[in-house]
Write a structure and sequence with these properties.
The protein is mainly alpha-helical and 272 residues long. It is 71% helix and 0% strand. It is built from nine helices and no strands. Helix 2 packs parallel to helix 7. It is globular. 22% of the residues are buried.
Length: 272
């Protein structure tokens, strides 16, 4: 097998992988849509409910933010964890490893499906669902006017994408956390290659143990460095904040590339 990258062979590999992975992926999208619709239907403000407004007097749609983050993490991690799980089944793993494509093409196909298509699909489903509910809510604002004290005005609700990407306060920080979804998918993609069974559970436990260990070491080192030291007041400037956020972006990007490299090496070892 020629291990150089071939775009035609890579395209055929993507089509072949879709035959096996596509069914599971489409089912997961239907489940995702059902969960999002369920949460929105239950939590959306209604004239029949109490506490429809937040502390600023706006219709309370704050549930969207934790839902967006938590559900997004679960969805993209499950998709990434299930991509190479076939390698844990000896009878099917042989057929998979004998696929006429280079190791790099197989690895790249995994990245495309888990880090790009899954993330884009999640954003699209969440955006369309949010847009539909926001439009419905804005078209029925008159029903909420009598619920405000002194008949205050009810302002229109904005979509979550507008608030996150067009609002200057949110947009300033979003770019620094751009690599986080790719880091999550890279970790669970590695788990799908590394473990033979119970990929998601083992990967999640490994992440929890590793994160706990790192947090413990950071706290211990901080205590050791600061012990018996005199505290000096320091004004936290905007430049300091930018450096911290930039460091987060660089660290998460580097970790993602390192984990992708380890995944490629591990996949190559499996084929050997």
């Amino acid at each position: 097998m020629n291990n150089t990258f071939n775009i035609n062979r890579f395209g055929l590999l993507l089509k072949r992988q879709w035959l096996d992975f596509g069914k599971i992926y489409l089912i997961s999208l239907v489940v995702l849509l059902g969960i999002v619709l369920g949460f929105y239907s239950y939590n959306i403000p209604s004239p029949l409910k109490d506490n429809n407004f937040d502390y600023d007097g706006n219709l309370d749609m704050r549930f969207r933010y934790p839902l967006f983050l938590i559900l997004g993490f679960i969805f993209i991690s499950i998709v990434a964890s299930s991509y190479f799980n076939i390698l844990g089944q000896k009878s099917r793993a042989i057929l998979e490893l004998m696929t006429p494509a280079s190791v790099f093409e197989k690895f790249l196909a995994g990245v495309v499906y888990t880090a790009i298509i899954s993330l884009f699909s999640y954003l699209l489903i969440f955006y369309l669902t949010d847009l539909a509910f926001v439009k419905y809510l804005n078209s029925h604002l008159d029903a909420f006017k009598g619920l405000l004290p002194k008949n205050g005005a009810v302002r229109e609700v904005e979509t979550i994408t507008y608030q996150v990407f067009n609002d200057e306060g949110y947009r300033e920080y979003c770019g620094y956390f751009f690599a986080f979804p790719f880091l999550i998918t890279s970790v669970f993609l590695l788990g799908s290659v590394y473990f033979n069974r119970f990929h998601y559970i083992k990967t999640a436990l490994s992440v929890m143990v590793f994160a706990s260990l790192i947090s413990y070491l950071i706290v211990k080192i901080s205590v050791w460095l600061m012990e018996n030291k005199v505290a000096i007041h320091h004004n936290f400037r905007k430049d300091d904040k930018d450096w911290v956020l930039l460091s987060i972006l660089l660290i998460t990007s580097i970790l993602t590339l390192i984990i992708w490299t380890i995944t490629y090496v591990r996949l190559k070892e499996k084929e050997v």
